[in-house]
């Protein structure tokens, strides 16, 4: 059985990958993670039927994954729009944002009020939720306390990255205020909080070397061929691994 | 018709991508380029029939693409070995090498003589040629003047990255001392020197924004779905685009 990670373990694996010993740069990992997110969305929601993707980005690293995914989705022929009400200020964030701007991907200015989100939702076919990642801790702070209900109310299909936004990383949607995604893409390994998730569940982050997989007893499933994602469960079957 | 690039143009596009305006880091571009190389090899040479890949890396950026490709090939289930007789000393090179070591990918020590290459070839099923890229200028210097003939003599199938090693970037294999690859993976756009290449020809580097594609009149073909590579020509048909 695949291992479901606590927030602390997820953090530890990330740190090891980017330590001097692991030798990965954040640019590399974010590029592969974001690509996996974009490919998951493309697998679940065809470009000809769901062309307009609202990519919702949080202020942390997961927002960076979202910006990378938005760029790749643009390359795949989708029409992404980035909603990033609280932009991160790390240098990498600025560069990833610039790369989106260079692709002429619309970015909703953070200063605008919640009406801009309402309008964007009206003009979207599917949502990519890259708001909160495994370092999220409740409570949900402004402006996201107003954002999450709007996303749920939109009735648009939602693809969540790693942990649906608003869910506790270990205890899931216990407070009932989190997003209700149709599709989930776990990165590196799934988190404890998504054990009971029902829907299509993918795994991405095909960069964990065997020594780390063994050290943390991850029991990752094999990825098919040269794909960057593997489907763990469809919406009709329980988790395969 | 797709544009075939001079060495100067290829250099210019690379610089624009990594300028403040282009905003890409070398880590990002190398990761996507190396992934495209690995996926090309995996498409042309199945892992169950050609498991042992000798990844030959030069001292420049293309050697870096090779190291990234070696890592991804390891992830895909291949058994890569890295041959890097003249390691680059940029920091990124060291990190990419460490990532390979972490995957327990054998790296032939650079100090060893040409016999180590002979042995490695004997134990390989296919070669990934990431020795010289678009900044190569003849003559071929030691140790590569001995390396290239050995690779050709091995009769192993060869997948070359961007420009087959030993070919002039603009004039091709005019001196007749270059590799004779079966498969070519051009990055960003093909180079003038490979216009007459016969074999399977792929394109990778799905990161060129439209404004650069237009500025340099690249006329890139569409990539299929969410793939990172597109086949330009099979070995039996002329270039499609």
TrEMBL record, chains A, B:
GO CC, alphabetical: mitochondrion
Record carries keyword Chloroplast: no
Record: residues binding (6S)-NADPHX: 61-65, 133-139, 162
Residues forming coiled coils: none
EC number from the UniProt entry: 5.1.99.6
Subcellular location: Cytoplasm; Mitochondrion
Main location: cytoplasm
Sequence ranges assigned to domain YjeF N-terminal in this UniProt record: 10-220
Cofactor(s) needed for function: K(+)
Keywords per UniProt: Cytoplasm, Isomerase, Metal-binding, Mitochondrion, NAD, NADP, Nucleotide-binding, Potassium
UniProt enzyme class: isomerase
Keyword Glycoprotein found: no
Catalytic reactions on record: (6R)-NADHX = (6S)-NADHX; (6R)-NADPHX = (6S)-NADPHX
Cofactor note: Binds 1 potassium ion per subunit.
Residues given in the record as K(+) binding sites: 62, 129, 165
GO MF assignments: metal ion binding; NAD(P)HX epimerase activity; nucleotide binding
Family annotation (Pfam families): YjeF_N
Similarity comment: family membership: Belongs to the NnrE/AIBP family.
Protein function: Catalyzes the epimerization of the S- and R-forms of NAD(P)HX, a damaged form of NAD(P)H that is a result of enzymatic or heat-dependent hydration. This is a prerequisite for the S-specific NAD(P)H-hydrate dehydratase to allow the repair of both epimers of NAD(P)HX.
Family annotation (NCBIfam families): yjeF_nterm
Name listed for the protein in its UniProt record: NAD(P)H-hydrate epimerase
Organism (species): Galerina marginata (strain CBS 339.88)
Lineage of origin: Eukaryota, Fungi, Dikarya, Basidiomycota, Agaricomycotina
